[in-house]
Structure formats: structure tokens, C-alpha cells
Amino acid sequence: MTSGKIYIETFGCSLNLADTEFLAGELLKKGFTVSNLEEADVIIVNTCAVKEPTERKVLNYLRKINKLSKAKIIAGCLPKINLDDIKKAIPSFNAIVTPSAYPRIGEIIELILKGEKGLVVDDNLQPSLFRDFQVKRKIGIIPISYGCLSECAYCCVRLARGRLRSYSINQIVEYASNLVNRGCVELWLTAQDTAAYGFDINTDLSKLITTVNDIPGEFKVRIGMMNPKNAYRITSSLVDAFNGGKIYKFIHLPVQSGDDEILKYMNRGYTVDSFREIITKFREKHPNITVSTDIIVGFPGESEKQFENSLKLVEKIQPDIVNISRYGDRPGAPSINFQGKIKGSIIKKRSRILTELVKRISLEKNSKWLNWTGEATIVEEAVRNGYIARNYAYKPIFLKNSSLKLGEKHIIRVIDYKPGYLIGELAD
């Protein structure tokens, strides 16, 4: 056993947050404690590579910590995408560890403590689903698989995570039960594509959702991002699985474009009509379901008409949330070689137009919740003084109340709204 302090800086998605907990858990086994940056003996930077602005932010952070006299481990997706720039940004690194090599983190730490520097570890292992990191929040993150089955033209993350490797339903249920027993009131089932879950082990997401819903305890479940291509294969059973009382009525279904030709160039594997069909079927059974989607503006070759088709789709389906990305080349992604690159000024303009539309729709959607009264759970502290509660549709409700505690359930009345959240007060 070793004693020492670790600090972990995490960039990126909920899957990265889960990986951070795994890494921390493995180091806690070695006798380390979690610390702040100033006091830490070892710094782990869990990187993200999905977008160019995020990569830039990560590299700037690496430059910032390069001169610190501490052991430094660079983890996450970026090493598989842009290893050279990492080495330039932080030449003092002790180890670079790709996601598939996380099971060896204990061994790597031992080598670093003996003075090793410049290690690059890239295996093809699958981290254990079971982690010892103490859950301090009320939200438990459960990676249900690693890798994906898609080959989207703009994506570089598949290069970092590889092909789909699903955990068994029994493994997931056991880990989820542990989280509930340790006080989690919200579980996130996360993956690069949750809709692809189980296709490699003869099961699927709908069966997993139904089984997790039956776990004893008081908790809610948020289902992570689903590629429409794979969600379409199991739409009927998926919609039925959302009948579970513990399942948030929330779906994240990234369409990426409202134009079939652009979707084909993106190699997304579905059409606008099939995407709309999924949304329609969910809303038929779950009328108040919160719909989140993603759109990339300025994909190579996107004409004004094709961009307008994305605007028309957003207007038509009225999503609650739209995550807007400006297209940017990513290392290793096929689209880096596509013709018809769009000028940055045009991409910026299109992004602004879509943002204004989304803001208007989000405000209209949230206005329908005004005066709603019902049960919601306090799940996190707000950035400003107060707390965030979530209702059955996963709507965030801001409560300016210092006497609340994480994990509590309350009857809440919505008294106001903004484009991104509702504002409530206690009604019990």
C-alpha cells in the first residue's frame, strides 16, 4: 500500500465522469486520498477529444500544469486522437493512459512512484464495472458498455473507445443496486450509444431498462444518448420500457442534421423520417417526455437549403433541448478529407440562427410547465445559491432555498421559467 494524494481534472461526457470514478477507486485501493490540485502528489487529467474547442481547452490546461513538480498522468480519449500535441503541451508527463488500459492504473502508479517518466500505455482491456470510489453525490453513473457500433464520418471518439463491449445485465444490476444502497437517488445509464447496448451479447437496452426499473429502492433512472439508427431497431420495446415508474421521461436522440443527404454523408444510418417516427412513438405513449437532440451546423457540403431543412425539423419536432455544434475537422475522422468545407463565418451565422430558434422553442416548451405542481427530487447544488430538483420528465427546477438537502423529495410548484430551466418553490 502507498500513501499520497491525488487530484483528478475531468473534461467531457458522463462516460468520462464514470471513468474518473473508476480511476479514483483504483488509486484509493492503493492508499491514495482525493485532494485539491495544490496539495496533490499525483495529477490525473481525464481528457476529451470530441470537439476541437474542448481539445484546445484540454491542451491549454496541460500547458498550465506542465511545470508543476508533481506526477502527471494524462488519460481519456485525446491520447488516441492527438498524442503528438499532448506530448508537446506537457513534456513533463509521467504516463499517458488510454481508456482501454485503465485496469492497469495501479501498476502504472507503482512505476511512476519508482521514477518512471514518459510511459504511454495503450491496451485493449475493459475496465471493471465495479469501483470503490465513495459516492458523495446523489447521482450514480453507470457505464453500460464501452465503444460503439457506428462509424459516423465526423467522429474521432470511436478511435479511442473501439468497438462495442457491453456489460451483462447482471453486472449492471449488481452495481446499480450497490449505488442505491449507498444513497444514490438518481442513476445515469451511460455509453457512447446506449441504444447499441447488448447487441454484442444477445440482449438490448429495453430489457436492461425494465430490469433496472425493478431494482428495490427509491431512485430514478436517466437513459443516456441513443443513436437513432439503433434506437429505431427496438423502438416499440424501448417505448414500453419507459413505462417503468423509475424511468425519467427523457430521451437524448441526436439527429445531427435535418437533411437526408447530409445524414448520408455523415454515415448516420437513418433518415429524417425514421428519426421523427421514433419521437412520435415516444410522445404517443409519454406525452410530456423531454426531448433532447443534437445538431451539427456547417458539415462539409451543407447548402443553405440543407441548413434550412434542419431549422424546419427543429420547428416541426419542437425539442426541449438542442445541443448545437459547429462542425470542425477531427483527427482520424473521414470527414477531414471531405470536399465543400464551409467558411467559419457562415458556420457562425448558421449557429446563431439556430440558437435563436432553439431558445424561442425552449422558452415556449418550458412555459407549459408554469403552475405545475408535483413531486421532484433534489439532486444537485445549483451554481447560484440554491438547489436543482428533477421531476418525472427530468426537468431541472431551480429552488432558492438553503434549508434543502440532496436526496430529499418534495412537492414543488413551478412559479417561473427560463429557456434552460424552471423555477420553483416548495408546496409541501
Topology:
Elements: E1 4-10, H1 14-29, E2 32-34, E3 42-47, H2 52-65, E4 71-76, H3 78-81, H4 83-89, E5 95-97, H5 105-113, E6 119-121, E7 139-143, E8 145-146, H6 157-161, E9 165-166, H7 169-181, E10 186-190, H8 205-213, E11 220-223, H9 228-233, H10 235-241, E12 250-252, H11 260-266, H12 272-285, E13 290-297, H13 304-317, E14 321-326, H14 344-367, E15 373-381, E16 387-390, E17 396-399, E18 409-417, E19 422-426
Parallel strand pairs: 1-2, 1-3, 3-4, 4-5, 5-6, 7-10, 10-11, 12-13, 13-14, 17-19
Antiparallel strand pairs: 8-9, 15-16, 15-18, 16-17, 18-19
Helix pairs in contact: 7-8, 8-10, 10-12, 13-14
Q: How would you describe this protein?
A:
The chain is α/β, with parallel strands linked by helices. It has 3 domains: 4-121, Rossmann fold, CATH 3.40.50; 139-367, Alpha-Beta Horseshoe (pyruvate-formate lyase- activating enzyme), CATH 3.80.30; 373-426, Beta Barrel (OB fold (Dihydrolipoamide Acetyltransferase, E2P)), CATH 2.40.50. The protein has helices at residues 14-29, 52-65, 78-81, 83-89, 105-113, 157-161, 169-181, 205-213, 228-233, 235-241, 260-266, 272-285, 304-317, 344-367; strands at 4-10, 32-34, 42-47, 71-76, 95-97, 119-121, 139-143, 145-146, 165-166, 186-190, 220-223, 250-252, 290-297, 321-326, 373-381, 387-390, 396-399, 409-417, 422-426. Strands 2-1-3-4-5-6 form a 6-stranded parallel sheet, with helices on both faces. Strand 3 (42-47), helix 2 (52-65) and strand 4 form a beta-alpha-beta unit. The model has no long low-confidence stretch (mean pLDDT 92).
